[in-house]
Design goal:
37% of the residues lie in helices and 15% in strands. The protein is of the alpha/beta class. Strand 4 and strand 5 form a beta hairpin. The structure holds pyridoxal-5'-phosphate. Pyridoxal-5'-phosphate binds next to helix 4. Its EC number is 2.6.1.2. It comes from Sterolibacterium denitrificans.
Length: 405
């Protein structure tokens, strides 16, 4: 019999956060080992549950949620999202500019599928949340990575962005706040990115799913609020700000220069229609979430659980010889650097696998985020202080052994 092969479309599609290292961790768990997992940004298993009022609203509305909704989503939920765009100073958003999806993930793939033809290029940050690179590839485009500068707090390198634009470049992706670096971009930098997009007629795709997970009193600026004359597609959802990742509720907002984008918008409408609609019960949680008590603020405030975990993990990493880590201003990740002189790593996946085998701690290698050199890894700081201390203690012990090899 002929072997059944996967589609050639998948040749350059990669999503290492749930890749071979996770498969090995699962196998080890089946063998009875306890693995401390610092690998996935899924808040609920670590005790960060969705606010009760959201859960209650979903339950209350369940009897009304058996049918399909409008393909773009429930009107009341989209209206609440529209009000949220007004709070964020994004100009000119109407209810019809809003599409609700089964998480931001579905909408990222939809937005890229609606846009790209073979040979089209999209500027994607390095490091990135790898779904962006994967979605561009799956849609037949090419992800061109622009560098974020670790020495400058992981801000995008504007010269690198400019140098990578050519006649095939269609769009630029901005992940702000950033996964995996925890960087938050200031308005001045965002304005410069908008100017680049304006000059080169690029669409801005803004992934802002962590826009409320901010530390040290920081505030978030939506790039779309600075780009009234540039086509902007902004993504957000319930997964992180409201710790409801399993609900699968996200949205996409079209703003800015829409007049010349009617054909693209038709494409988005078609793809939204083809999948009928997003999970309806979860849509009933959106209005309550956006209008309700923002309990995320308690978690990120000084002394709040997330803030304490960030501080602990950041300090412990920087105390390890040859490890340096930019302090995250937002989100739930750290992306430390290993000094290549002290840790001469050829293959960072193998390195992370060895850590797993020896110390039963699960991390994700930097290359999983399209980082070009094997000298970084990502830490999720969702586990409680005891588990983080235990896990990072084991990482320190592993690195100690690695240096002495
Ligand atoms: N965008 C970023 C930057 C993320 O980190 C994640 C999940 O980790 C997503 C999108 C996916 O979000 P959702 O759960 O809404 O699909």
């Amino acid at each position: 019999m002929q072997p059944v092969m996967k589609s050639a479309k998948l040749a350059n599609v990669c999503y290492d956060i749930r890749g071979p290292v996770l498969a090995r961790a699962r196998q080890m768990e089946e063998e009875g080992h306890r693995i401390i997992k610092l690998n996935i940004g899924n808040p609920a298993p670590f005790g960060f549950v969705a606010p009760e009022e959201i859960i209650q609203d979903v339950i209350l509305n369940l009897p009304e949620a058996s049918g399909y909704s409008d393909s773009k989503g429930l009107f009341a939920a989209r209206k609440a999202i529209m009000h949220y765009t007004q709070e964020k100073n994004i100009p000119g958003v109407q209810v019809e500019d809003i599409y609700i999806g089964n998480g931001v993930s579905e909408l990222i793939v939809m937005a890229m599928n609606a846009l790209l033809d073979a040979g089209d290029e999209v500027l994607v940050p390095a490091p990135d949340y790898p779904l962006w690179t994967a979605a561009v590839s799956l849609s037949g485009g090419t992800a061109t990575h622009y560098m974020c500068d670790e020495g400058a707090g992981w801000q995008p390198d504007l010269d690198d962005i400019r140098s990578k634009i050519n006649s095939r470049t269609r769009a630029i992706v901005i992940i702000n706040p950033n996964n995996p670096t925890g960087a938050l971009y200031p308005a001045e930098l965002l304005k410069e990115i908008v100017e680049i997009a304006r000059q080169h007629q690029l669409i801005i795709y803004a992934d802002e799913i962590y826009d409320k997970v901010l530390y040290d009193g920081a505030t978030h600026t939506s790039i779309a609020s600075l780009a009234g004359d540039v086509l902007c597609i902004t993504f957000n959802g319930l997964s992180k700000n409201y710790r409801a990742a399993g609900f699968r509720a996200g949205w996409l907002v079209v703003s800015g220069e829409k007049r010349h984008a009617q054909d693209y918008i038709e494409g988005l409408n078609m793809l939204a229609s083809m999948r009928l609609c997003a999970n309806v019960p979860a849509q009933f949680g959106i209005q309550t979430a956006l209008g309700g008590y923002q309990s995320i603020n308690d978690l990120v405030a000084p002394g709040g659980r997330l803030c304490r975990q960030r501080d602990l993990a950041w300090r412990m990493l920087n105390d390890m010889p040859g490890v340096s880590c930019v302090k995250p201003q937002a989100a739930m990740y750290l992306f430390p650097r290993l000094d290549p002189q002290m840790y001469p790593i050829d293959d960072d996946q193998r390195f992370i696998l060895e850590l797993l085998e020896q110390e039963r701690v699960l991390l994700v290698q930097g290359s999983g985020f399209n980082w070009p050199t094997p000298d970084h890894f990502r830490v999720v700081f969702l586990p409680n202080v005891d588990d983080l201390t235990e896990a990072l203690g084991r990482v320190a012990r592993f690195l100690d052994g690695y240096r002495k090899r």
